[in-house]
């Protein structure tokens, strides 16, 4: 077991380099199944979730080697009757993303119901609705789901909610289907566009990715390619908040304005000074934090993944701030941990009311999920005294060497083995 120990009060200074997006690379790795060939994913982040999905692919006869920042994958040895390791599937919800590619390429897939962070129900019904629209039959058993189709065929799918995972899974299922597929009310996240760009490089025909209507024209086969996914906008946003919270001057290299507009707008509203450049954003501190209201929404709205980190900043804004969480019903677990550090937060259903405090107090807290862990690190950076964060394996799922990057900026943070 490992912990983070932070001593707050240090100003940050310098540059921090953003890693490739976890939420891009996971579906892209899953999509390599479609090639039946060799693919290389470059600049891959060394994250627990990336290792888990590589091990998952190994369990279905895909060769997956992580060497010198690149992942080399070869799915040519797959025969189509493989069943992925159930323990690995239950470790991570993104494991369900192999279902679309396997169904598309082989016409059959059986998989355990997936796991992941306990931040809400996140049902898979939209994924299955899409597969059915493409002609698959679905069998839901005790703890598993199986989909079969002699040959998938194009169809029209309207998503009741613009689910990122469902949009990705349906896209991957549709690329080898007969005919055209239209996904309406599709997710518009940058990671959707990135996956589409990867599939197009493999030979798929896709238009509209990044909008609410995606059209996929089925092709006969895809080829292996090399590809570098986009930078992680949530990691970039976390360091932007770190600079703001510590009233510091830092440069976030890899932060793209186009993908961070909702966060930028809220930081400016809060009183944070920033400069935007080509491929970077500079945080120049603030002259006092103003209270703000945030409502999480599907992209291009304010990202639910930034709600937890942003709440740490809102706790130090003098006045009343309100957070409304519309995406996940159980994403305020970090609030009780922040309250242990002195935060004044009241939860009412999907709303959190935050009354500003002068400072956090260091204490022992637990990372209840990935983004909650980031929020606690941010609070610990400015807390009086020492903050100890347990269960940091959650944080390692989505942040590459976060303590090393923060230490390079001047933070007093250590990872210890206990």
Number of domains as seen in the coordinates: 2
The percent range for helix content is 25-40%
> What proportion strand?
25-35%
Distance between the termini: 6 Å
Main beta-sheet strand count, sense and barrel state: 4 strands, mixed
Q: How many DSSP helices? A: 14
Question: Which CATH C-level class of the largest domain is it?
Answer: Alpha Beta
**Helix/strand structural class:** alpha+beta
Q: What is the annotated CATH architecture of the largest domain?
A: Alpha-beta prism
* Poorly predicted runs of 5 or more residues: 116-121
- Beta strand count: 23
What is the overall pLDDT average? Answer: 95
CATH homologous group name of the largest domain: Enolpyruvate transferase domain
Major sheet strand order: 21-22-1-23
InterPro entries: Enolpyruvate_Tfrase_dom, Enolpyruvate_Tfrase_sf, MurA_subfamily, RNA3'P_cycl/enolpyr_Trfase_a/b, UDP_GlcNAc_COvinyl_MurA
Enzyme class: transferase
Organism: Clostridium frigidicarnis
Subcellular location: Cytoplasm
């Amino acid at each position: 077991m490992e912990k983070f120990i932070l001593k707050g009060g240090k100003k940050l200074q310098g540059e921090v380099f953003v890693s490739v997006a976890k939420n891009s690379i996971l579906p892209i790795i899953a999509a390599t199944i479609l090639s039946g060939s060799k693919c290389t994913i470059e600049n891959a982040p060394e994250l627990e979730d990336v290792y888990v999905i590589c091990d998952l692919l190994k369990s279905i006869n895909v060769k997956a080697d992580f060497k010198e920042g690149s992942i080399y994958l070869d799915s040519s040895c797959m025969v189509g009757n493989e069943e992925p390791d159930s323990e690995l599937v239950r470790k991570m919800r993104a494991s369900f993303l192999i279902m679309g590619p396997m169904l598309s390429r082989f016409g059959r897939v059986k998989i355990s119901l997936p796991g992941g962070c306990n931040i809400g129900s996140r049902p898979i019904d939209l994924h299955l609705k899409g597969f059915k629209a493409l002609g698959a039959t679905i069998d839901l058993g005790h703890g598993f789901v199986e989909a079969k189709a002699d040959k998938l065929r194009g169809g029209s799918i309207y998503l009741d909610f613009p689910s990122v995972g469902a949009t990705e899974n349906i896209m991957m299922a549709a690329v080898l289907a007969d005919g055209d597929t239209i996904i309406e009310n599709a997710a518009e996240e940058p990671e959707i566009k990135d996956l589409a760009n990867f599939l197009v490089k493999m030979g798929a025909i896709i238009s509209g990715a990044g909008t609410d209507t995606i059209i996929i024209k089925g092709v006969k086969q895809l080829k292996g390619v090399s590809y570098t996914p986009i930078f992680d906008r949530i990691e970039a946003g976390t360091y932007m908040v770190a600079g703001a919270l510590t009233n510091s001057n830092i440069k976030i290299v890899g932060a793209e304005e186009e993908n961070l507009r909702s966060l930028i707008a809220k930081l400016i509203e809060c009183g944070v000074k920033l400069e935007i450049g080509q491929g970077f954003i500079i945080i120049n501190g603030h002259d006092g934090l103003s209270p703000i209201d945030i409502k999480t929404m599907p992209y291009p709205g304010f990202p639910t993944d930034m709600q937890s980190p942003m709440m740490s900043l809102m706790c130090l804004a003098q006045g009343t701030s309100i957070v409304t969480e519309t995406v996940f019903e159980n994403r305020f677990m970090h609030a009780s941990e922040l309250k242990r550090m002195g935060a004044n937060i009241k939860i009412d259903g999907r709303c959190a009311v935050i009354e500003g405090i002068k400072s956090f107090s260091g204490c022992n807290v637990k990372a209840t999920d990935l983004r909650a862990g980031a929020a606690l690190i941010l609070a610990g950076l400015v807390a009086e005294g020492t903050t100890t964060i347990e269960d940091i394996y959650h944080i390692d799922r989505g942040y590459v060497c976060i303590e090393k990057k923060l230490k390079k900026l001047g933070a007093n943070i250590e990872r210890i083995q206990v």
